[in-house]
Amino acid sequence: MTEEKKVEVSEEVVEEVEATSEEVVTEKSEVEVLAEENTELKNKVLKAMAETENLRKRHQRELADANKYAATKFAKEMLAVQDNMLRALESLDKVETQDEHLKGTLEGIKMVSSQLENSFTQAGIEKIKALGEKLNPELHQAMAQVESEAEAGTIIEEFQSGYTIHGRVLRPSMVVIAK
Fold this sequence. Notes:
By secondary structure, the protein is of the alpha+beta class. It contains three helices and six strands. The chain is elongated.
C-alpha cells in the first residue's frame, strides 16, 4: 500500500507542479508583454519629444529669417530713392557754379545719400560688385553685349547697381558684358 500512496501523491505533486509552472509561464508572458508595451511607450515619448524639439528649432529659424528679411520690401523701395539721389549727384557734379544755394543743395544731397548708404549697411544691405567681374546670373542681369577687348563674359558697364540683403539678392545689377 505504501507504494500506491506514493504514486497517488506523486501524481498530485506532478499536477500541482504542472499547474504552478503554467502560472509561471503565464506570468512571464504578462511581464514580457508589459515590458514590450513599456518599451513601445518610451519610444513614442522619445519620438514626440524629438518632433517637438525639431518643431521648436524650425520655428526659431523661421522667426529669425522673418526678422532678418522683414525690411526687404521697404529696402527695394528705398533703392529707387538711392538711385535718384545718385543721379542727382552725378548731374550736379557736372555743373560748375558760384551759386552758394546750389552748392549747399549739392552738399545736402551728398549727406542724405551717405546717410542712406550707412542705413543700408546697418540693415545688412550691400552693393553687388559688378565692373570687371565675370557675369554671374544670380547677381547680374545682362542688358546688352558689346564688342570689347575684355574677356568674353566680363562686365564692362553697369546701368544700375544691384544689392543684396544678408546675402540674398534684393535687386540684380543691370550690366553690359563683353562679347
